[in-house]
Structure formats: structure tokens, C-alpha cells
Amino acid sequence: MFTGLIEHLGTVSSIVVDAGGCTLTISESAEILGDCHIGDSIAVNGACLTVTEFDLEEQGGWFRVWLANETLDRTDLGERKVGDQLNLERAMAAHVRFGGHFVQAHVDGTATVVDRIPDGDSLRLTFQLPEPTPERPSLLPYLIPKGYVTLDGASLTLTGVDDTQRTFSVMLIQHTQQKITLSKKEVGAKVNIEPDMVGKYVEKSVVAALGGKGNEGLRALIETVVEDVLARKASS
Hints:
By secondary structure, the protein is α+β, with helices and mostly antiparallel strands. The protein has 4 helices and 12 strands; from the N terminus they run E-E-E-E-E-H-E-E-E-E-E-E-H-E-H-H.
């Protein structure tokens, strides 16, 4: 579990790709490796990855993670290059203050930057989600104005949602712009997105209560109500 408060920016120093996935080495990361152990989880640009090797001294402190093909398919990590910076956050400890929101670091997919508008010292960013498919349903039902969203691992507040355009927006204050990579991404770049998981659980509970999958339960409920109304009219 994570909070979405980025602790550090690491730098990609090595990428090794094969048929099974990708090994990523991230350097300049000593700041978050002081209590690191093999097998620990670190959110890398919002994706929960397992530390397989690390060194506190070389290259400013580096650690290595393995990316399965599923991770490469769901995230933008397969597009990263040596020298790119990545948002890093260690798994949340029980004794720390919880300043963000519940983040699983299980990336659902990517969105594309479609607009960047400076607003005083802040920066307004707008993103567009891809067309939904049966395999990848729309994430828009889980996005609401002033709700939470995780972008590249950072917990942010939604400032606007447009269901017809499949877009949503956030605002980055000056401090946040300096602490995460998102402010450096240009129009056309991809970001990793994880909607607030609470919405997913609520949807599943409601659907289960209605007795079906997706819209089937709601449809069945409406049909039952209509049939009941017609039966009452017919008997009166």
C-alpha cells in the first residue's frame, strides 16, 4: 500500500529487455534505500515493483526491478529511456502520517497529455483516456471532480472530468511541479493512471446487490419494477 506522496526522483541507468519482460536499474536513489531489503516493494511511476538487487554506494545508490509483460502493457515504463527520471515511493509504513490517499500502485492503464495551461505559479494539465474496449473498460466512472486520482504514482485531486471527451484535469502547485516528473511531460506524452480504488469496490458492491454483472443487474431491477407496475395496472 502507498500514499501517492512521491519521496524521490530516481534515474534510469540500465534497461535490459527480453521476451519475458524487462529489467530496469534505477540509480541516484540512495535516499530511499537506507532501509531497503531484497523483496521490498517500491512504486516506480505508480507501478508496484519488487526490488531484486540494490547497492547503497554505486551510482548514487541503485536498485533493480523486473517488469513482466503485463506491466509493460499496462504502463509507460516500457517507453522509458536511460537518463529518464522516475517518481519513487516506498511502501507505506504503519507509523507514518497518511497524507495522500489509498494507492495500490496497480496501474490500470495510461492516459495521454492533451493540454498544458500555466495558471499563475500553478500548471493545469488535461489528459484523455483511450477508447474503452471489452478487455479494458472505461475508467471514467471512477473519476469525479474533487476526487482522487493517481498519475505516475502521484496522488492528485481532479479539477474537472468530461465524460463525452474522455478527458480529466488536474492542477499542480509550484511545489508539486518541482517534486514529480509529471510537470515535465509534454502534450502527447503518456501517464500511468490508477483511479481511487474505493469507487471500484462501491461499484462491485452495488452491482452484486442488484444481482448481476455490469448493467445486467440494473436492467433486471428496472424490468422487475416495470412488470410490477404493469401487473398492478392490469389488476385495477
